[in-house]
Specification:
By secondary structure, the protein is mainly β. About 0% of the residues lie in helices and about 70% in strands. It has an 18-stranded antiparallel β-sheet that branches. A hairpin with a 2-residue loop joins strand 16 and strand 17.
Length: about 525
Amino acid sequence: MHTFALNFSIGDRGSDRFSKSMKEAGIVRRGFLFSVFMGLLVLSIGIPAHSWQGRMSGMADPYGLISDESDLLIHPAKITKGEGVKFYGDYRFTHTGVTDWDDRYDNYSATGVFLYSQRTDISGDEVGHDGLLGASFPLGQGRMGLFFTYDAMTVDDGGDVFYFDRLEIKSDLDNLALRFLYGLPIGSFRLGAETRIAYRREKDELNHYSLTGAALNQWWIPYKFPHRSRYWEALFKGSVDGKVGPLDIEFTLRGGFDFAGEDKWSSETQVPLGTPVSGYDAKGDVHGWQIGSELWLRYPLAQDLTLPLLVRLDYQAQKRDGDGPDWGTAAGNRFAYKDEQESLALTVGGGMDKEFGKKTRIAAGIYYNYLREREDLSSTFINPAGWGTTGETYPDSVEHQVLLRMAGEYTFSTAADLRAGFNFFYGWVTPKIRYSSNNSAGGFSIEDLSGHDCPHWGVRASLGGTIKVETITLEPFVGGGYRQLHLRAPGSYFGSGGTYGLSNENFTRNEWFVSTGFSVLFGL
């Protein structure tokens, strides 16, 4: 825990004036946040892999590099190229082994004398399931598509804190979506639109156990704060596909918003063991919106050589907030929170798609990704004696990333194909973080930490194939990889009463992953 003048840190229910802190009770929590990096920086190997069909999965999802029928899920105008009635199915299983999810915080005096160090060592397993069922068919002058998608993730991580304490992190995420696509040829161009309605459920738990007590679903920084969310999401797309001379153009504009959202945060504390339990129940809303666009260009240099180019831009913002009463020994107090997240992602790049005769295809591309994340998490504690607030403000979290994609496939016959793919990325991360607290008695504390060119890299390889039997196409695939993120952010803190010191944060996450699955395409 960061040592501030008022002992007013994240997770504490205020200073001593407002309630008994977990530090006094023997359960100490961190006062500094790196969770802003956990989403986009850790959970993805690049921006992002949209292709669902087994052919693309077998080549490590060379999205925008090689054309595929599943591109219609990105550019709905491409659905007009199909014929007859087609049925689609896809399933992917992913297992991630988190070998290190560690945090070390070192605290120094203003003159650089070492004061103390705090370590958290976490590891565990994360399991994901992704499925799709759908169909496309002629309707009027164009074609329509109906797709149902489901994806889920279960997280079961845990580890040691201060050698004797234990931290458990559990998550359950479920997303269901219904997608309606329609495409229509207009002259030499094709127009398309999509409406997607999704239901999302998120449950994050964080429990801390020690020799002296337990705290269920309270903040433990740098790990994600515990909450339960349920909300609906509406997304709309407009798309155009066509040629201008030899240049093939595919462009899509999209936007959406969250609605009918609900967020809950309930916590319990028992310190020491055997004493009455206290806690709080806070309820609120989820709000958010997003906008983005995607431009693909394919220019043929020769009959069997194409230069694909890609530009993608995404912006998302989401806010969760709530408030509610304390209960048990803390009855009469009130707790409120607000979490605001914002992300901006830009991808620009291109490559080469080369065919060698009618049996072999090789493609390679290099892309630049700009990733910016921001998250503000704040809480307010109120009781008859006064109030106190805590907050984490992230003015900027930026990653400059270079991504290399390579893919190839070989056709043995009209009934069998073999393919493979490889991705490698390397990123330079600049984290900037501020932690602050204040209360009605005039006390305050502020801590600023920042890093520069922190490494983030990963590799992924995939292998897949195609088996065709009459009108049925089966495409199995298997793949795996490794990712590593290391953040280092030195800084300083100061507070009321003249408190001043230096600090240093080191955060590491190493993980391997494997995935397997298959796709089925059936045409009438």
